[in-house]
Each structure stands twice: as C-alpha cells, then as structure tokens.
Amino acid sequence: MIELIVRGNAGNQFFEYAFARFLIKKRNVDDELIINYYGNYNCITKTNYPRILEGLFCVKSKTINKGLGFRYLYRRIYNKFEIFFFNPINYDRLAKIGFYNYPNDKKCDFISTKNTIILRGNYEFCDYADFVREELLSELIPKKTLSNEVNKIISLMKNKNSICVSIRVWPKEQVSNRRKQMSPELYKKMFAILKEKISAENLVVFISSNNMNWVYENFSINDNNVIYDNEDFDIYDKLAIMTSCKNFILSNSTFSWWGAYLAQYHDKKAVLPFCPDLGIFQRKTVPKGFKPENWIFVNQDNGDILI
C-alpha cells in the first residue's frame, strides 16, 4: 500500500501523483494507492486546497481525509522534529523504512520494499512523469462530462494551429525573489518568440488564467481568433482545453507545465521561463513528448532565449 499525503494545488498534486505512480511501477507489486487530503491547507486563502485528483481517472486508488491514529501521531512527531525530517542525511534513511520526504531539489532513486509506503513531498522532476507517461495520459483526464462549449473549443484547438497561453497571477503574499510575478512584457516577448517558430496560418489562441481581469488589462491580443478563459470553466475544463492545444506559453506555474506535458500533438512547442529557485522551472531537462529544439527556456527577467 502506498499512501500519498497530498500537498498544494492542481499542478503540485499531479507531480505527487506521478511519483506515486512511478513507485507503483518500479515496485512491480499490486499496490493500492491511498490519496490522503488531510491537512492540505492554503495559508494564504485560509481554505483547503481542492481535491483535484478525485475528478480524474487515477489508478486503483481511494481518497481519504483522515488525521487520526497513526497519522495523528506521525504529524505530532513531524512537527516536533521537523529539522530531522528535512536533514538531507536522513532522506534516504527515512525512505528505507517506507517514509518518503524528499524536497524539490533532491531526487529519489531508492525504491523501498516495505509493505506500507508513505509519501510526502513535491517530487518536481519530469523523470518520474516520463517513466509512467503512457499511464498518466490515460489517467490524468477528467471524469466529468464536458459541456458543448468546452468540446467546441477542444475541437477548434485540435484542428487549428493553436496556442495555449497560461497566465498565472500570484497573490502579493506569494511573490518573492523565488517566485516572481511574470510581467506583461515578458508574456508578450514569449508570445513573439513562439510565433516565429510556428506557421501563422489558421492560428487560434486560448488564454487561460486565474485572474482574467489582469489579462484584459495587461495582455490583450487584437485578433478575432482569440478565446479567453471563462469564469464558468473549472479546473477540469481548463485541463481538457489546454491539453488539446499544439503550442504553449507557460507561466511559472506547475499546472501550466502539466497542460503542455499532457498534450499529445506530435510537434508541439513550448516557451517557458527559467526560474533558478523554482522546482521544475530550474531544470532544463526536456520532457517526453517534446523535441529538444521545441522546449524553449527564456530568462524570466528579460525574456532572452537561454541556450
């Protein structure tokens, strides 16, 4: 049995699920996956993060929201001895007894043979996802029946030369030197870089954001072939539309990374910011599904292409 203690929002949950899926395949045993949402709390909004994985076709799994018994004891110990748990010397030692607690900058190559495994961490390395990509393509898809409007957009994205522009607007409390708010000028420069790489024929653009007011004020495109995110679209609608696109402008958001990663167009291209201190955006590894020349990093400060 593998118990995944979920942390963070959609993109974070996808990386955590991908690592759990990686372990299941590596262990090659009939593991049941328990997805535990207990304590997945957003300190900024003072609310629980949404339980995104529940709405997807995840492998033999069940979701729980429990913090009693062993989990309660573990959390008390964890809070009291947090320095021990986050000591790099102890990451592999803990994994050997079935407790995985690796941070973003530490890869895990140890496969525990314990009957019960507990996972806590972000695991933002595309290697894990690449190892189980075929499984993820069939599992990280919405269970819900999509509306006619969403299906119409999906069809358009698949049949046209489509670009998905993902714009993430961070609350002031979350902006720092580590996670910067990408400027309108940076998005425009990235958009111009991508347009030079693709044909202008049959171009259609889908702009997705968590703050459409910011988009209307800062990133308007004077073109009739632009479809803007709809406030009625939920996370599953957005995921379905994003993954149907052929080319991508990524924000410094893990959800935008997954939108591009799960897209299956054979010659897809992506322009994304290089963020030295931010998980998946601090590594230039080209994920499966992309040709190396089609995975284009730019400097997050000035938009210059990085070689």
CATH topology tier name of the largest domain? Rossmann fold
Average residue pLDDT: 88
How many domains is the backbone divided into? 2
Q: Roughly what fraction of the amino acids lie in strands?
A: 15-25%
CATH class of the largest domain: Alpha Beta
What is the helical fraction, as a range of percent? Answer: 25-40%
Name the assembly state: single chain
By CATH, the architecture of the largest domain is named 3-Layer(aba) Sandwich
Class by alpha and beta content: alpha/beta
How much is the radius of gyration in Å?
20 Å
The count of DSSP E runs of length 2 or more, i.e. the number of strands, is 13
Terminus-to-terminus distance: 43 Å
| Count of alpha and pi helical runs | 11
Low-confidence stretches: none
Explain this structure to me?
With 307 residues, this protein is an alpha/beta fold. The chain has 2 domains: 135 residues; 152 residues, Rossmann fold, CATH 3.40.50. The chain is 34% helix and 17% strand. The strands form 3 sheets. The protein has a 6-stranded parallel sheet with strand order 10-9-8-11-12-13, with helices on both faces. Helix 1 crosses helix 11 and helix 7 runs parallel beside helix 10. The relative contact order is 0.14.
Q: Could you give the topology of this structure?
A:
Blueprint: E1 2-5, H1 10-27, E2 33-36, E3 41-42, E4 47-48, E5 61-64, H2 69-80, H3 82-85, H4 88-96, E6 99-100, E7 117-119, H5 126-131, H6 133-139, H7 148-159, E8 161-167, H8 184-197, E9 203-209, H9 212-218, E10 226-228, H10 235-242, E11 247-249, H11 254-261, E12 269-274, E13 295-299
Parallel strand pairs: 1-2, 1-7, 2-5, 6-7, 8-9, 8-11, 9-10, 11-12, 12-13
Antiparallel strand pairs: 3-4
Helix pairs in contact: 1-11, 7-10
